[in-house]
Amino acid sequence: MKHPKLIMALCMTVISAGLFSFFGNAQQSGDFNNSQKQEINALIRDYILNNPEIIPEAVEVLRSRQNANILSQSEGLLYNDGYSFVAGNADADVIIVEFYDYNCGYCKQVPDVFARLLEEDKNVRIIFKEFPILAESSEFAAIAAMASMKQDKFMDFHRALMKNKRALSEDLILKIARDSGVDESLLLKDMADPEIESNIMKTKYLVQVLGITGTPGFVIGDQIIPGYISYDKLKDIVDKQRQS
């Protein structure tokens, strides 16, 4: 095959831009005569058919580029929204953002994973974002959790909510708050602040932009990851982000 490196580069361009969309562009280009256009199209098609293994690689490159663009546009809401709870090293070289719901069974497994990571890796930062979508009680719990930050009780309350195995209700959420050392009367007052609900709506908008449709969901470095992550997988992702 003629000029394999050139053909490989052309193929990667084709797939990154959208599979086979290049063919139409090549036909419209004034840089090649008809014979050259036909030869280029045939070479690209043959190379892709003979080397289909390049397609997943190219799709992954395209996905990474799209993610990088989305994350760049969402940087303020992701990392510096001014209302999400932040744990870990403020100067960390790897940042993890979690989106969760207090009624989500898989979300309830994450606190132990994070606790181990923070214990073993002193150079990560975790940003907690309320994403209540599963029930009305999820919304009440999210508002209560955000209000608890004013009493510096968020992490205790958050962990207690995640450890709870019973169906959440407003009464149970308030009991968990009291058991976590939260002043209930002050909590209820702070929960009435309309800014809290506004901030949750901002997070829901952010999730739509990122394409996260369920809980838990994560942003780690340049990756947008749906679903639960085990400790070993999380550690591997963090290590690779650090290396890159």
Describe the structure.
The chain is α+β, with helices and mostly antiparallel strands and 244 residues long. The chain contains 12 helices and 5 strands. A 5-stranded mixed beta sheet has the order 1-3-2-4-5, sandwiched between helices. Strand 4 and strand 5 form a beta hairpin. Helix 1 packs across helix 3, helix 7 packs antiparallel against helix 8 and helix 7 runs parallel beside helix 9. The longest helix has 20 residues. The two termini are 34 Å apart.
In summary, what is this structure?
With 244 residues, this protein is α+β, with helices and mostly antiparallel strands. The protein has helices at residues 4-17, 21-28, 34-50, 54-73, 75-79, 110-120, 136-148, 154-163, 170-179, 184-191, 194-210, 231-243, and strands at residues 85-88, 94-100, 124-130, 217-220, 223-226. It has 12 helices and 5 strands.
Structural class: alpha+beta
Poorly predicted residue ranges: 16-24
Shape: elongated
Q: Give the CATH superfamily of the largest domain.
A: Glutaredoxin
The profile of the biggest β sheet is: 5 strands, mixed
Give, in order, the helices and strands. Answer: HHHHHEEHEHHHHHEEH
Give the terminus-to-terminus CA distance: 34 Å
Overall number of strands: 5
**Number of helical segments?**
12
Instruction: Tell me what portion of residues adopts beta-strand conformation.
Output: 5-15%
Text of the CATH class of the largest domain = Alpha Beta
Task: Output the CATH topology of the largest domain.
Answer: Glutaredoxin
> How many individual domains?
2
